[in-house]
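STRUCTURE REQUEST FORM
Protein name: Transposase
Source organism: Actinopolymorpha pittospori
Requested output: structure tokens
Priority: standard
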Amino acid sequence: MCCYILVEGRSKKAFKTWLAERPDAWRDQVEVVAMDGFTGFKTATAEELPDAVAVMDPFHVVRLAGDALDKCRRRVQLAINGHRGRKDDPLYRARRTLHTGAGLLTDNQIDRLTALFATEEHVEVEATWGIYQRMIADYREEDRRRGRELVVQLIDSISTGVPKTLTEVITLGRTLKKRAADVPAYFDRPGTSNGPTEATADSNTSAAAHSGSGT
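Status: completed
Returned output:
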């Protein structure tokens, strides 16, 4: 059994207060809470539902990696050309292709990326793109145990020893290291998602938590 929760006000206090007001019998049944990367949800859950497993929704993990890729692309674009992306700039033209899973690339898209990464100035974008693609591939791994191992390895690999020039990867590594238990927890609870709350939430709605009991 599962339920989807929408709580007004995106803050730890709002979610914590809502949880504290639930009956003990209800809270005792909650086994899993799915959430995005907002730390307020994590701490509220830990304090009010200490026995529940926090799971960071894969959608949000991949989006963090995608955001890092976008930020890197924009930074390199500005450093090379001195302006934000324009329609004739190679990095700007490839922005959607960069977000396509490697296994879904067409021959034309592969050729575009090959040409893009042949330029030494784009090496930081290529490295960040590689991290993004690894994240996607890890979640698509059919063997859940192997997928879990790969995600843990990826988080470890970008948490230390990353070249200083890859600033976006460093930030991503720090963020995911803080959630090092919540990210791989998904593989122990496949299908856990806060997607339905994301689909119905508006900009003024905060908590998107999917709690399940007996799952």
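Reviewer notes: The chain has a mean pLDDT of 87. The chain has two domains: 2-57+192-212, 59-181.
Form closed.
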